[in-house]
Structure formats: structure tokens, C-alpha cells
Design a protein that fits this description.
Strand order of the largest sheet: 4-3-2-1-5-6-7-12
Distance between the termini: 32 Å
Shape: globular
Helix content: 25-40%
Oligomer: single chain
Number of helices: 11
């Protein structure tokens, strides 16, 4: 069985991904800042690292055949102070640099790295109906430049003969974390809370399809470079919100638009990302042979609600 080392494995995406890896008979080593209260099994073990101190369990890395890098401070978790914006960037770039430096300075057998990135790479839609593709340049805004530095920080691994894939992840829809619970919360009160005009395009992906893409990238040696990790059918915020409300409440809900000024007061600079329309193409990942279990938002929402 191949061994996969995961950085960021205790988070929302990582916890689901580990389950899928174990089901496919991989051994998994999870890098974590604390080994306290970690339950190991025959296929899952834990190893310590501390990005700020530049420390990592070298022996654990030497066991790995592949690495999945998911580490990064949450983009919408806190107010975008200058200090937190710096943390958003360095939590990504420094963790990648630590991994690359450790690989460079020690004997190892890593053949593949799959590193998270985000569709924050792209800016606001410029032409209606024209989707962003992987060859488009990084946006000059904050998140665009963070994603650029993030991807650049893992690329020196290529010089070591390691195949590197970067998955530019869209808005992740999952059960207990990510964007979906926030979208679904107002439906408990019979409300479909449409953000702003609701016309902004949301490029989303179901958590199961996202995790399957990580494994697909691990297992397909012809894949390298950047791939958009989004479903093939993006939708407007209004369509997404109403689809959730209809699935939960049937016809018994009230669409309400949350004004832009309210979102700006509540979220500050983060409201830019909430209100931004970004249409992102899934053509490249599909051309590699990947098939989506949940290609439409209707299918994704139905699964999320029925499997609660």
C-alpha cells in the first residue's frame, strides 16, 4: 500500500479525504501541530510539525510516496486585518517551503505532490459567459496574489523530479463545514437569503468530488500543473440559494435579498469575495478523464440534504 503524507489533514477537506484514502487502502500520515488525543489505526498515523518554528518529522516524510498539502488559514474566518491577511499568505507559502526544503535536504521517495490552491487566483468575470481557464494570469488583487505565491512556493519540488499538481478549489459544498451550512442556515426560518443582486456566478464543487479529484491526481501520472477543482455547471448565487431552499422547504420559503451595504458592514473587505462573480471552467480536469458524481447543484444539494 502506498503511503500519503497529508498536511492540513485535520481540517474540513482533509478529514473527508482521509476517509476516501483509507477506503482505497492507502496508508495515511497526518502532519499535526499536536499529537495529543490523536487516535491512530492500522492505516492512519500522526506526525508532528510546526511551520512557524520550521520543524517537521523527517522520518515521517521519508516514509511517504506522495504528499497532499492542504494547509492554510481560513479566508473568511476572521476580519481581514493586515496581520490576518499576512497570516492567510504565510500559512500557505511557509508550509509549502518547509515541505520542499525538507525534501531537498533529506533522502526521500516522494513521487507526487498535490497542493491545494483556490479560484481566488482569478478575478471578477469580465466577459459574460466566458469562463476562466488555467492559463489565465493571476488577478492583481489580494487573493489572486496569495494564490500566485502559494503555487510558486510548491513548484521548486519539480526540480527534485517530483510531479506537482495544484487544484484551484472553488466554493466547497459539504455537510458540516465550508460554505454550505451558511447558505442553508436561513432556510430553517423559511428564508432564501440571496446575497446582493444574486447575479454573481458561484463556481462550486461537492466535497466528495473534490476529494476524489485529489486521489485522481495522485493516481494519474500524466497530470501536472494547475487544474480548476470546480463542478462543470456553475450557477448564480440566487440559483444556488433557491435550490437549497426548495430542497429543504419545497415551495414554502421567502426569497430575501441581503443588501450589498449590509454585507460590507458585516464582512468588510471579505465582502468582495462574497459578491464577486467568477465563472471557472472544469474542462481541463474533465479532459484528463475525471467524471463528476455531482455535476449539477441540484444533485449536490439533494445528496447533502438526504445524507444528513
Amino acid at each position: 500500500m502506498a503511503t500519503v503524507l497529508i498536511a492540513g489533514g485535520t481540517g474540513f477537506i482533509g478529514s473527508i479525504l482521509i476517509k476516501q484514502l483509507v477506503a482505497k487502502h492507502y496508508n495515511v500520515i497526518v502532519l499535526t501541530r499536536s499529537l495529543n488525543n490523536k487516535k491512530e489505526s492500522t492505516q492512519i498515523s500522526y506526525a508532528k510539525w510546526d511551520v512557524q518554528k520550521g520543524e517537521i518529522d523527517v522520518a515521517a516524510m521519508q516514509k511517504a510516496d506522495a504528499i497532499i498539502q492542504l494547509t492554510g488559514a481560513g479566508v473568511v474566518d476572521k476580519k481581514w486585518t493586515e496581520a490576518y491577511k499576512k497570516e492567510i499568505e504565510t500559512s500557505r507559502t511557509k508550509s509549502c517551503q518547509l515541505i520542499v526544503d525538507t525534501l531537498k535536504n533529506n533522502t526521500q521517495q516522494v513521487k507526487t505532490i498535490v497542493c491545494a490552491s483556490a479560484i481566488g487566483w482569478y478575478g471578477q468575470d469580465e466577459v459574460l459567459g466566458k469562463a476562466f481557464v488555467e492559463t489565465d494570469p493571476a488577478d492583481e488583487g489580494f487573493l489572486g496574489q496569495v494564490c500566485k505565491k502559494w503555487e510558486e512556493s510548491i513548484e521548486p519540488a519539480i526540480e527534485l523530479g517530483i510531479r506537482v499538481c495544484k487544484l484551484r478549489t472553488g466554493i466547497v459544498l459539504g455537510h458540516k463545514a465550508g460554505a454550505y451550512p451558511e447558505f442553508a442556515k436561513p432556510t430553517k426560518f423559511g428564508i432564501a437569503a440571496i446575497l446582493g443582486t444574486g447575479k454573481q456566478i458561484v463556481s462550486w464543487i461537492h466535497i466528495d468530488d473534490l476529494c476524489r479529484q485529489y486521489i485522481y491526481a495522485l493516481e494519474n501520472n500524466n497530470m501536472q500543473g494547475s487544474y480548476n477543482a470546480v463542478a462543470p455547471v456553475p450557477v448564480t448565487n440566487a440559483v444556488l440559494t433557491k435550490t437549497i431552499a426548495q430542497t429543504v422547504r419545497g415551495k414554502f420559503y421567502l426569497p430575501i435579498h441581503v443588501p450589498v451595504f449590509v454585507l460590507k458592514l458585516m464582512l468588510g473587505q471579505r465582502s468582495i469575495e462574497i459578491l464577486k462573480s467568477t465563472t471557472v471552467s472544469a474542462v481541463k480536469i474533465k479532459s484528463e478523464g475525471f467524471t463528476f458524481i455531482y455535476p449539477t447543484v441540484e444533485a449536490a444539494v439533494k445528496e447533502l440534504e438526504t445524507s444528513k
